Amino acid sequence: MKYYSIAIDGPSSSGKSTAAKAIAKKLGFTYIDTGAMYRAITLKALNLKIEDLGNENNYAFIKDTKLEFVDGKMYMDGVDVSKEIREQDVVKNVSLVSSLRYVREELVALQRKFAEVTNVCMDGRDIGTNVLKNATLKVFLIADVRVRAERRYLEQLEKGSTMTLDEVLKDLERRDYFDSHRELNPLKKAEDAIEIDSSSMTIEEVQEKIITLFKEFKHE
After folding, report:
1. List of E strands, the chain
2. How far apart are CA 38 and CA 125, in angstroms?
3. What is the DSSP string of 129-187?
4. Residues 47-81: pLDDT tens digits?
5. Are 101 and 181 in contact (CB under 8 A)?
6. pLDDT tens digit string along 143-202?
7. How far apart are CA 53 and CA 92, in angstroms?
């Protein structure tokens, strides 16, 4: 049986997770939030009180960690950690943890297994360039950094965050630089990916654009 896959890459707060989740639901695909997987591992490392988060030798626990998606929620070792992985300590450290070769190799292998057994819509930083190189459709979703900062700021505000817009902007710029300059599979557009700038688009417009593209690519 042939399975289809949609790979959506892009910087933080470009809207890729929101789009991927909605697209998966509309198409009846499984949504794989790769960022949530890296955040879950970061959360576990913090819970284990690992002091040197930059040492990949400290992540042997991944082998014994069960990650799964149930009804759109992230479960780790049978526990719903969807809220915990969005906390500030995790957000601040996930770029470092996700840059480690061992961590990436383990989670990429798991992500590929998901795509082998079902239709998937997957978003992250290197889905089209590394994880799913033969994806049915590859999208590189971008947006102006100021627009992304405003989106993130409003999201955080609703959750009770006290971060200012300027702090959110600086944090995004830091993450953008880190993600695009890391040695292993940095954030970049795949050669065969279609770039979509969501700066002036609604969430619905982004979704419809990607679904239309998928239907075209599916029949090629």
Report:
1. 5-9, 30-33, 67-70, 73-76, 79-80, 120-124, 137-142, 194-197
2. 11
3. IIITTT-SEEEEEE--HHHHHHHHHHHHHHTT----HHHHHHHHHHHHHHHHH-SSS-S
4. 999 999 999 999 999 999 999 988 888 999 999 99
5. no
6. 999 999 999 999 888 888 888 999 999 999 998 998 899 888 889 999 999 999 999 999
7. 12
